[in-house]
Predict the 3D structure of the following.
Amino acid sequence: MNNWQRNTHNTLKGADSCNAFFKTRQFKDQNFPLKIPLEFASLIDKDDPNDPLLKQVISAETPKRCIKPGFSIEPLGDGDNAPVAGLIHKYPNRVLLIASRVCAIHCQYCFRQNFNYSEHDAISNWQAIEGYIRTHPHINEVILSGGDPLSLSDEKLQVLMNGIADISHIDTLRLHTRSAVATPSRITTELVKILNETRLSVVLVTHVNHANELSDEFAKAIQQLGKVTLLNQSVLLRGVNDSVSVLSALSLRLFELGILPYYLHLLDKVSGSEHFLVSDKSAVKLHKELGKKLSGYLVPRLVRDENREAKTWL
Ligand code: SF4
């Protein structure tokens, strides 16, 4: 068992284990179950009820959920864009594979928290997926998502990547992952080798929302990735990162680590995440202010995911 696999067992799951770890606050079991790896939990200030990392992994305090219009169980309807189970095709040149149903951490704003993963498993449906991609030669990029593709073992990831690399018209592989920052021990020597030895151009898109998530362990791990292109996407979350100072600190630190801020997503309106919502007007204002403070390449694009497209704002 790899070190990172051992570490995935070092994860707080459910209210009881969180109560035992944090001591300073009372957790309750949640609709989207509490799941916090110790590597991430150790970055949380136990005495601060407003810690920006803590807020991302617990649901709203209010006993009754305040359901706002426009929020729903599955805001993006990903399944509607799946011509083959486990493959989502929204854009002509690229497809997204649901590579794993597992995540190292449960983010309470996650738009896929109610996704029907059992019907969309790219690994078990690989034959049909491969057939689909081979008959669509204009597809040149495959995105591995989930869940989190880095929750796969190195061996499974290697097999999947080999299958993708065998398709001659695919030249780019993108991995969307929150594991890299939530459990930096996941960046194993073996993983680094796999990502560097493939013939594909590899883009690793981390998911970091606040500079406090960028631990020394993450900084060390990410430096090993060699020729892999590093980008970051964040979700704009009220009370977590909805200020110019927090977002600029995040961009500057990411850049120090060789990661370009790529997307700042408006919240996908999944039920239970209402308290995270930043209004469109405030988001645009904040983004403009950020643009005045930072060099252009440090300002992530403000986008909203739509059912059919990711729309850029400005
Ligand atoms: S790691 Fe990603 S897919 Fe998993 S819960 Fe968090 S946002 Fe959702």
